[in-house]
Predict the structure of Energy-coupled thiamine transporter ThiT.
Amino acid sequence: MSFFLTYAADSEEYLLKPAGYGLLIILLAALLFVIYKLGKVSLKTQKMQTKQLVTCSAAMALAVVTSYIKVASLPFGGSITLFSMMFICLIGYIYGAKTGLITGMAYGILQFLIEPYIFAPLQVLLDYPMAFAGLGLAGLFSSKKHGLITGYLFGIFSRYICHVLSGYIFFAAYAPEGMNPFLYTLGYNATYIVPEAIATVVILSLPPVAKAIAQVKKQAISS
């Protein structure tokens, strides 16, 4: 582990070494390759494989950019952003849960590369690849009526559960004295996820937006 990480005693957290960054870049590249190969299975042609990879990469890039446009930030992590979760959920909606899951996992690794916070290995898994992979589960509802909004809500709920588990297991000590740590982490994570979810659902409910997304989906899966 020391080959990839170093412990910072002053901040009581682990920091990535160059080898750690290198490993994450390799994992990210591997996940992008998996996305490309998934296109071969579901979309048949090399042109469609490439289109799927480009679409997923563009969604990840948009998610990163909008994650830095913050309405509010919380002191121990988490922020209300400009609809950043929506872009990963859209990949699930367009290509299905499997591609959405892998894209979300890749995005989680990318976020970890940009802003790593390492308290424990399981905490990293819960707060980064697993949490953002959960957004891709929006694809479970891609063929359902109102699947866009239902899938989005399910995706962000999946992310919420991962952060709640991480908070309860690893950060219970930050709960105010006398307050139940589980209730604290439920409330803390809802503070930033719920407002963004409400704002995003309002936007997705607008007929012009829904129509535009339907057109994007049609173009993304057409040859």
Notes: The CA atoms of residues 109 and 133 lie 10 Å apart. The mean pLDDT is 89. The first strand starts at residue 5 and ends at 8. The chain has two domains: 1-45, 46-222.
